[in-house]
Amino acid sequence: MPRPAGGPFLEPIGPIMIRRDHGPLAFGLRVEKRHCNSKDMAHGGMLATFADLALGIGGFTLAGVTGFFTTISLNSDYLAPAKLGTWPQCEPVLLRRTRTLVFAQGVCMADGKPVLRASGVFALPREPAAGA
């Protein structure tokens, strides 16, 4: 099922597909020319943005949290290129949820090969102040 990527910065990346109905929660997209560098490989910044969305949305979903997340930290290791036409997919893993943070990690696979390993820390939505 397509999941819109919110905001004008993220619109050119999507649609990002999400699978929730069977198997583990997973996010994926087809690498198109607009995602690529001059070598017809997904640009590293695009893959990092994809990982940020997959881990943030996925971490919140797995933690049972709704609302807008803020990325506190995102670490990425590029393992191999994701070539034009491949299907990068990330299955986020919830590592921990605290009162204020969600910790998640995942490996993005493109057509069965690992292309990116990422971990992130995401802030939970703040509760409105009393009397606000």
Mind explaining what this structure looks like?
The chain has one helix spanning about 45-65, and strands spanning about 1-5, 15-20, 25-30, 70-80, 90, 95, 100-110, 115-125. It is α+β, with helices and mostly antiparallel strands and about 130 residues long. A hairpin with a 3-residue loop joins strand 6 and strand 7 (about 100-110). The protein is globular.
Question: How would you summarize the topology of this molecule?
Answer:
Blueprint lengths: L1 E2 L12 E4 L6 E3 L15 H20 L6 E9 L9 E3 L2 E5 L3 E10 L2 E11 L9
Can I get a quick summary?
The chain is α+β, with helices and mostly antiparallel strands and 132 residues long. The protein has one helix at 44-63, and strands at 2-3, 16-19, 26-28, 70-78, 88-90, 93-97, 101-110, 113-123.
Count the strands? Answer: 8
What overall geometry do the principal axes of the alpha carbons give?
globular
Q: Termini, distance in Å? A: 37 Å
**What structural class is derived from the secondary structure elements?**
alpha+beta
Q: Give me the Rg, rounded.
A: 15 Å
User: How many separate helices?
Assistant: 1
Q: Average pLDDT across residues?
A: 89
Pattern of helices and strands: EEEHEEEEE
Q: Percent of residues in helical segments?
A: 10-25%
Q: Low-confidence parts lasting 5 or more residues at pLDDT below 50?
A: none
Q: Which sheet architecture does the biggest sheet show?
A: 8 strands, antiparallel
